[in-house]
Every structure is written in C-alpha cells, then in structure tokens.
Amino acid sequence: LPRILAVVNQKGGVGKTTTAINLGASLAASGRRVHLVDLDPQGNASTGLGSEAMTRDHSTYDLLLGDAALSEASRPTQIENLWLVPSTSDLSSADIDLMTNERRTHLLRNVLRAESVASLGADYVLIDCPPSLNILTLNAMVAADALVVPLQAEFFALEGLSQLMLTLREVRQSANPALRIEGVVLTMYDRRNNLSQQVEADARGTLGEMVFQTVIPRNVRLSEAPSHALSVLEYDPQSSGARAYKALAGELMAREARE
Amino acid sequence: LPRILAVVNQKGGVGKTTTAINLGASLAASGRRVHLVDLDPQGNASTGLGSEAMTRDHSTYDLLLGDAALSEASRPTQIENLWLVPSTSDLSSADIDLMTNERRTHLLRNVLRAESVASLGADYVLIDCPPSLNILTLNAMVAADALVVPLQAEFFALEGLSQLMLTLREVRQSANPALRIEGVVLTMYDRRNNLSQQVEADARGTLGEMVFQTVIPRNVRLSEAPSHALSVLEYDPQSSGARAYKALAGELMAREARE
Ligand SMILES: Nc1ncnc2c1ncn2[C@@H]1O[C@H](COP(=O)(O)OP(=O)(O)OP(=O)(O)O)[C@@H](O)[C@H]1O
Ligand SMILES: Nc1ncnc2c1ncn2[C@@H]1O[C@H](COP(=O)(O)OP(=O)(O)OP(=O)(O)O)[C@@H](O)[C@H]1O
Ligand SMILES: [Mg+2]
Ligand SMILES: [Mg+2]
Q1: Which of B5, B15, B90 shows the shortest CA–CA distance to B45?
Q2: A→B interface, C-beta within 8 Å
Q3: How does residue B56 score in pLDDT terms, banded at 50, 70 and 90?
Q4: What is the DSSP code (8-state) at residue A12?
Q5: Integer CA distances (angstroms), B167 to A89, B82, B112, B243, in order
Q6: Cα A165 from Cα A171, distance rounded (Å)
Q7: CB B154 within 8 A of CB A223
C-alpha cells in the first residue's frame, strides 16, 4: 500500500499547494509513483498541474462520497509517475453535505486504504488540504500515515502551529492513533531578513528533529511555474526552488528508510 | 452610521489581515473612528493588535449570536481611534452551529446596522474575513456597504478572483443589492519580478478603475509589525509598507468623497 501523506496547515498561503506539487514532482522524478489528491475546493493543485475544471469527470468529491475508487478517479498528469485526483468546487459545501454521515471523518481513509489500492502500485499519496481545520482536512488527517506541515517563516504562521498540534492530538486520540508528523518544512524562507531566522530558531527550538533540515527559499520560480501548468522541476530545474524540493524529497525518503 | 467595509478573498495569505490592520490604523491616524471586526477563527487581526485570547470576554461570535451589541463587544486598542471586536476559535464551527438559523447570513448585518450603532460615532467598520467563502464571509458580505479585495500579485490569487466575483453577484441578487466593490488592492507587489507586473496588467486590464492606484509593496516591516502587536505605522512609519497603507487610506477616503 502507498504511504499516505497529508500536506496540512490551517494558515492560508504558507505553501501547502506549492509543496504538494513540487514534493510530488520530486518524488516522481526519483522514480516513485505518486498520486496527488486535491482536497481544496479552490483546486490550486489541479490548476497548477494543468487540469482543466471542465474536463474533470471524477473528483475528490466522488472519492469522499464513495462513488469512485482511487484507481477510477486518479488520472495521469504531464509529469511521469505523477497522477492527480482533481478537486471540484462542490467540496466547498462538504461540511454541511456530510454532516449527517456518521462516518464523515473516515470517508477518505476508507477509499485510500481499500484493498483495491494495492493493485495501483502507488508509492505515495499526497493530499493537498485547504486553509481550514474543517471536515476536508480532518478526512486527510484521519486517512494519512503522516503529516507534512509547511511552515511559512513568518509570525502568523508560527502562531497557528499550536492549533494544528492540538488537532493532531485529538485525531490521534479519536480516530487515527498511528498518525505522526513526517516533518515540518520551513517555506518562503528569506535569508536576508531577521524574521525568517527567528521563526526558524523558534521552530527548531520547540520542535527539534521534527523540522526538516531542508528549507524552501523564497524563489519567484516557484510562483511562476503553476501559471505554465508546470512543476518547478520542469519550469526551471536549476532554480533554488527546484533544488530545495528535490533535497526535501531526498530527506523525506531517507527518513522513511530509517524507520 | 459607519461605512461598513469587508476585507475579503477566499485565497489564503493574500494580505487580508495585514490590510485590515494597517488600512484601519491609517484611517484612524487620519482622525476617523474605526472598529475592526475579526471574523476569522484564527484571530490573526486580534493577535496582531495585541488582544490576548484569554482576556476576550465578548467576541465576534457573540455578535453573530445576537448576545452582544457592537458597543458592548468593541473595545479600544493601543491605537487611538481604533477599536476591535476580537475573534474566538468558536467561530470555526459557525457553519454547523448556525445551519438551522433561517437568518444565518444576516446575523452580522443585523448587529452592524442596528440603530444603537449610530451612538458609537464610528466612521468605519472593517471586517477581516477567513480564507473561505463560508458562512462567516457571507455574513460579512451581506453586512457590508462595500468590499476591499486584497489581490496578491501571483497566479493562484488571480485565478481565485472570478470565484469571488460570482459570489459577489449572488449576494447582490439575493441579500444585499447595494453591495459594491470599494476596490481591489494589489498586495505583496515585487517590482523586480515579472509576475507582479503581469498580474497587475491583467487586473487593471480586466477590472479597470476598480483597482486602486495604490499598490502595497512586499516589505518585511509589514510581516514583523504584528509580532510586536503594532501596526506598521507605529512599528516603522517611514517604511514603504507604512507609506503605502497611508496612501491607500487617502485614496479610499477620496473615492468616497466623490460618491
Ligand atoms: N518558496 C516560495 N517562493 C516564492 N513564492 C512561493 C513559494 N512558495 C509558494 N509561493 C507562492 O506563494 C503563494 C502561496 O503559496 P501556496 O498557494 O502554495 O500556499 P497554500 O498554503 O497552498 O495556500 P492556501 O492556504 O490558499 O491553499 C502562491 O502564489 C505560490 O505560488
Ligand atoms: N506587503 C507585504 N509584505 C511582506 N509581508 C506581508 C505583506 N502583506 C502581508 N505580509 C505577510 O504575509 C503573510 C500573509 O498575510 P496575511 O496574514 O495578512 O494574509 P491573509 O489573507 O489574512 O491570510 P489568511 O488567508 O490566512 O487569513 C503574513 O505573514 C503577513 O505578515
Ligand atoms: Mg493551497
Ligand atoms: Mg488573515
């Protein structure tokens, strides 16, 4: 079965989607088979990988409703070894639509851990989450083996970390005791400014080894790439952003090898 | 009665809170009496203005439930002419808590347009919204006279604008026909990179006069200020960020004078 990683942080604009796309593309470039699940109704990961909103027949909403298996909903992207289950704006009403469903936090887990998934030969499932600790992010946290937490090197993002840790603990106590943190990755790091360094010192001080050694620098190539429906690895492979995400993938695979 | 402005954009991290705080502080510095309403369960505006989570007796949740009037919930900040109704994490369950309430999209409107508000002598109410078109943002859009839309000069943010415009139209057709756009303000603008310029050209091309002339530059002082519980005007009044928000306030007041 694939290793299921949820990319989570309820703070907006901290690099969840950029990490889901580029960590996914980096793992794929190393020969791993990666399925990216876009759980954000805003569908940035889908758009950033060139998935046109009109042509998406099966979506992550169908996964949640149990109307499609992963093998039916996941389709190839232009990146070798990278598949995508695209988002739909229907997801924005998920909290209310799923309210009366007793298993509403386990819907994605049921799909991603179904026996049929084994035949896909997938190595990783990466779930991109919206900026909210709502039913969608809860589904991702209940489904996942581990969390990848992008931490923007700025004040408001650091403040939000404790809320995320509380939610992690709740999910471990109620629904997914095996859930752990794969790692916290500092994003949009700007070496020239003091605030980045302070947030890094703070994060490493409180979270220690949980923080990846790899730091993702602020690099305009990362924000340009999705406008061409490319990962940064294809858009500008020599950029600091591309090299950082390749290093992150390497560090992540090394960590898992040690387990 | 005060002019009610909602700071909205469902995309995360585009500068809603930074705009709410610093536009609010700039209007206050010009002698306007401003009440900032923090409608985001993550409470960044509240934290950024030094409001301690423990000491918040009345919150925006009490406003929504009709348990407090604006005069009861709004308290002074360390900034002259700037008051705050702080957030609470209870807001995160608002979609579900308010589901059976027939007036659930009008709750904030009822409070902010109540007769008793006139006695406050407020010139502006600024509402900081979460990164979602959920019941909280809908309440803000139904309550508001106009929207201030921060538009981060990047691809994903530009993509999200059409979704916001659709929601604006729906709200105008169903609940608040007088709702208009005060203006779209380009944020985190980086003159050195092409993407900023392209997004600006795109925005001005499609939205014309709706886009403020004032552009908020990327300036680290804006991200440092909240860690000191200060607006950028107090933290570094000569910074490009402070000057830009003062210019934005001036442009906004000039626009309203012409109406
Ligand atoms: N390291 C980086 N350098 C420069 N720009 C970046 C970097 N990482 C992300 N960005 C850009 O910053 C913006 C926010 O990133 P992104 O959309 O990935 O965050 P997010 O957490 O997924 O946001 P949301 O909460 O809205 O889903 C995007 O425009 C993205 O292209
Ligand atoms: N012009 C700017 N220059 C530099 N940093 C900025 C600027 N504007 C905002 N920031 C920083 O960028 C981050 C995102 O901004 P902010 O929190 O205001 O966005 P938001 O839209 O309110 O996010 P959310 O969707 O999570 O509520 C914050 O850390 C903020 O301090
Ligand atoms: Mg995203
Ligand atoms: Mg905010």
Answers
A1: B15
A2: 10-14, 17, 42, 44, 47-48, 89, 92, 95-96, 99, 130-134, 152, 154-156, 159-160, 163, 190, 193-195, 220, 223-224, 226-227
A3: low
A4: T
A5: 13, 30, 21, 32
A6: 10
A7: yes
